[in-house]
């Protein structure tokens, strides 16, 4: 299978997961705060850190596996562009303090989750 097809398959699965998490978050928490996007970015950051450690460093994974899981799945799942749009939406609605809280939480938690994924990947395997 060629590289673009592998990325496309992973991206399709990641996008569907992103859609389902977004629906779940709105049903669970309501639409006032972008909880779904925040959760997706944190989980996606954790997953990419874990995949990096597992695929590239622990198991000598193939280029195809890296393309499928990291570029495709995580790329289709994470939503940084949606994060940006959510932030702008909060600011434009006049919810600057909530927007700043969302900005800080997204960046700090997502980067922290990446480190956690790397740590767990290193300790578990």
UniProtKB/TrEMBL annotation:
| Positions contributing to Na(+) binding | 75, 78
The way its activity is modulated is described as:
Na(+) is not transported, but it plays an essential structural role and its presence is essential for fluoride channel function.
Q: What does this protein do?
A: Fluoride-specific ion channel. Important for reducing fluoride concentration in the cell, thus reducing its toxicity.
Q: What is this protein called?
A: Fluoride-specific ion channel FluC
KW Cell inner membrane (keyword) present: yes
- InterPro entries documented for this protein: FluC
Q: Does the keyword Ribonucleoprotein apply?
A: no
- Give the main location: membrane
Q: Where in the cell is it found?
A: Cell membrane
UniProt cross-references to HAMAP family, sorted A to Z: FluC
| Organism of derivation | Neorhizobium huautlense
The record's similarity note reads: Belongs to the fluoride channel Fluc/FEX (TC 1.A.43) family.
């Amino acid at each position: 299978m060629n590289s673009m097809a592998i990325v496309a398959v992973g991206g399709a699965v990641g996008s569907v997961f992103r859609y389902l998490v977004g629906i779940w978050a709105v049903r669970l928490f309501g639409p006032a705060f972008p909880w779904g996007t925040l959760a997706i970015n944190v989980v996606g950051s954790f997953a990419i850190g874990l995949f990096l450690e597992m695929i590239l460093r622990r198991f000598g994974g193939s280029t195809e596996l890296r393309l499928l899981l990291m570029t495709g799945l995580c790329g289709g799942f994470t939503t940084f562009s949606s994060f940006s749009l959510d932030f702008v939406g909060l600011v434009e609605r006049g919810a600057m303090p909530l927007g700043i809280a969302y900005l800080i939480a997204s960046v700090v938690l997502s980067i922290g989750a990446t480190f956690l994924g790397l740590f767990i990947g290193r300790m578990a395997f």
